[in-house]
Q: What sequence folds into this?
């Protein structure tokens, strides 16, 4: 549709508009990238004063070494990895089971189940009652408090259901004629046909579990169970009382490296995963 | 007679489909435990807690909040909540729509894709990461901003500890993180605008800007309204973004209802009061959504909900 307005038959006003637009986009990119570039560069730089450079003056990888070897930092990283992996698996289990059952049009009570679950999108008990329930179940100060509650995610379940609804009905009918039970159909027909959906919704869950912060603040006070996000915040807020430039330089480098490690997983998978994320969002907005 | 036979069939069907129910059971159990039981807990708002017992006190918690000893703190937190989230909502609508319109005008598909990829990136970072990035950049000792100021001969400024700086920086950071992601839905709406409308406007001698205001904006105004109303429902939930940037120096200006409820309800163990604050918050949220939708229905004649 843009050919109609191409530069050839355009006016001067239009070209000025275009040039301004490209310039604006460029500014926008600089604004987005400068903070990230600075943090990455400084994470490899053991200078006390960084200045305006975007390339390390005193290059060093000590900060990263320290994150992966110092038990104070390695333990939270492990907690983050373990909860992300387990949480994603648990979340996908819940989302697929729920979506598969909610997709059965003839099931008695399906409408009720759907409403029963969707209500939780609008109403919730709030901070304190949720805290008390978890406390009553002796889940506070255990990782269950951060693993279990977010695993049923209504939004992800709706997305999963709309993916499942694209599977042709005839496949189910023929499986039924062959005498397959619902779990067999689920395992050997639905799941293998939904790898794209599993990847996309799995990523949503992974982002959520990796970035989890609030639930740790609320439910966990044992430092052994802190995840990397909590530890990173502590690290950033910590002040060095010693006036030794070497120590200050190193501490700042570790802070920057901590930020980089906390974003690393998504920098690695983001270029491949972006279209899944967007597919999920646009589909979700249609459903709403 | 017919009824009885129907009922019989339904029962047979349920028995036949028991495996589906079994598969749904884990989901149901989790939802009941983690969502419905806490909903019942809303009644705590009407109780007073002592270390050994709880006592029904009716609306006393609310009276305390609205006019009693906690009133100054409560109204301040309420005012802050409205200020931060509504300003942010307005900013987000303006910025995301503008960026979406400009992205839509980019001729090169590749350039558009690249800009989008980079704009969406911060959405996936946690608030902790984003606040850490900006805490480092704005740091009085090592931050690049203060280093620039020093080169210019200006004394370093501890940005996040001063209220006059904290507020604009807060809005900048939130928009830095979420503006790009907010454009997705507008871009989807823009791709659905009929190209013939532009041709017609072109014929009538409309310039590029004129076309944006007369063709593009009217075409996506419904989307803008829907997004606005849905986000209005979340206005009262503002929390993590404020919490991670908060520090004792700016407590007064940055305390919002959720941080207040957390401090009173969880940290001080005043369960009844914490729940009361939360309940108030939910009511205002619901009221905002229904209210805006009613206004919208009056003006446009149709509901978006």
A:
């Amino acid at each position: 549709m843009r050919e109609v307005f191409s530069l050839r038959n355009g006016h001067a006003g239009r070209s000025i508009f275009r040039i301004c637009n490209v310039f604006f986009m460029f500014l926008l990119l600089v604004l987005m990238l400068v903070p990230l570039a600075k943090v990455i560069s400084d994470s490899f730089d053991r200078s006390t004063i960084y200045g305006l450079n975007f390339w390390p003056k005193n290059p060093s990888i000590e900060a990263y070494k320290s994150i992966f070897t110092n038990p104070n930092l390695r333990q939270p990283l492990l907690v983050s990895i373990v909860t992300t992996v387990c949480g994603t698996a648990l979340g996908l289990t819940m989302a697929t089971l729920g979506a598969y059952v909610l997709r059965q049009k003839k099931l008695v009570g399906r409408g009720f189940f759907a409403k029963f679950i969707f209500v939780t999108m609008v109403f919730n008990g709030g901070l304190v009652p949720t805290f008390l329930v978890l406390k009553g179940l002796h889940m506070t100060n255990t990782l269950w408090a951060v693993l279990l509650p977010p695993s049923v995610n209504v939004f992800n379940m709706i997305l999963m259901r709309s993916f499942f609804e694209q599977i042709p009905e005839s496949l189910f009918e023929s499986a039924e004629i062959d005498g397959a039970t619902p779990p067999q159909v689920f395992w050997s027909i639905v799941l293998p046909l939904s790898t794209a959906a599993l990847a996309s919704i799995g990523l949503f869950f992974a982002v959520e579990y990796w970035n989890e912060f609030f639930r740790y603040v609320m439910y966990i006070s044992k430092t052994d169970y802190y995840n990397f996000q909590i530890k990173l915040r502590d690290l950033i807020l910590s002040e060095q009382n010693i006036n030794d430039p070497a120590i200050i330089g190193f501490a700042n480098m570790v802070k920057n490296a901590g930020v980089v490690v906390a974003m690393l997983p998504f920098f690695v998978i983001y270029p491949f995963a972006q279209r899944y994320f967007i597919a999920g969002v646009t589909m979700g907005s249609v459903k709403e | 007679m017919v009824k009885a036979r129907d009922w019989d069939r339904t029962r047979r069907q349920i028995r036949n489909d028991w495996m589906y129910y079994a598969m749904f059971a884990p989901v149901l159990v989790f939802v009941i435990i983690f969502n419905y039981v806490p909903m019942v807990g809303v009644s705590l708002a009407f109780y007073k807690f002592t270390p050994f017992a709880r006592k029904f006190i009716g609306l006393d918690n609310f009276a305390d909040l609205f006019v009693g000893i906690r009133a100054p703190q409560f109204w301040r937190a309420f005012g802050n909540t409205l200020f931060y989230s509504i300003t942010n909502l307005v900013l987000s609508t303006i910025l995301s729509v503008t960026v979406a319109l400009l992205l839509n005008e980019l001729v090169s598909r590749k350039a558009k894709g690249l800009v989008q990829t980079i704009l969406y990136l911060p959405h996936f970072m946690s608030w902790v990461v984003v606040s850490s990035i900006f805490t480092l950049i704005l740091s009085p000792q090592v931050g690049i901003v203060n280093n620039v100021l020093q080169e210019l001969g200006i004394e370093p400024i501890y940005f996040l500890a001063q209220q006059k700086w904290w507020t604009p920086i807060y809005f900048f950071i939130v928009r830095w993180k979420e503006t790009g992601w907010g454009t997705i839905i507008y871009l989807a709406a823009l791709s659905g605008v009929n190209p013939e409308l532009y041709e017609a406007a072109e014929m009538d001698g409309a310039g590029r800007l004129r076309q944006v205001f007369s063709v593009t904006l009217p075409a996506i105004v419904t989307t803008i309204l829907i997004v606005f109303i849905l986000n209005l429902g979340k206005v009262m939930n503002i929390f993590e973004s404020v919490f991670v940037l908060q520090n004792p120096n700016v407590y007064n200006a940055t305390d919002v209802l959720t941080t207040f409820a957390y401090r009173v309800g969880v940290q001080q163990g005043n369960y009844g009061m914490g729940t009361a604050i939360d309940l108030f918050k939910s009511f205002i949220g619901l009221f905002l959504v229904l209210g805006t939708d009613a206004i919208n229905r009056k003006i446009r004649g149709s509901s978006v909900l």
Q: What stands out?
A: Chain B is about 75% helix and 0% strand.
